[in-house]
Amino acid sequence: MIELEGITKAYALGDERVPVLHGINLSVGRGELVALTGASGSGKSTLMNILGCLDVPDAGSYRLGGRDVARLSEAELAQQRNRSIGFVFQSFHLLPRLDACDNVAQPLVYRGVPRAARRAAAREALQRVGLQHRATHKPNELSGGQRQRVAIARAIVGAPRLLLADEPTGNLDSATSEEMLQLLETLNVEHGITMIIVTHEPEVAARCRRCVRLHDGRIVEDRELGATRPGTAS
Question: For 23-34, what is each residue's pLDDT tens digit?
Fold first, then answer.
């Protein structure tokens, strides 16, 4: 599903180039549920942006479903994001003037799906996250947990192959966080969606079946079921 080979990335800081990622090698199979962890400044946000086709590496290869997305044009990257990747953010990023149904349908607008068809797909996605009864409510009429469910429905409405969740429980209380984690687990197991969850919370990482830890732009740990995967530590 995902194959990263020799991924490097640096950013300009004045006249200097500051390296962020150093030769990242990572494979993620279809249907895996992976936690991506590391301290602030470890490079996990940069890696997530590359995985989500929001940024491109300076060197190396990133193959998503067999396609080297590191070599795509901006237009091709946008199409890849829209058709293959779903995003869930800590701060939800819902449009306040739209109801839940229209918020969920937004990715389909950019595909040119007719309004009736995209609203039908949005209602189905809301049903999958248990929120069909709130379809006509706007974000300010929903609780934090309900807004995150809408965000998850939006992420899956286009049937993505990959779902990227950036601190999806960061703004939620413990009980609501548990509900979100159970929902993500269900979507992973029952629908086979490959998921990568960025988190700094050990209890969230422990719910995933694999944990990849970054430090100073390098993978220093890659564990599955408590055992370190061979050949991945740097």
Answer: 999 999 999 999
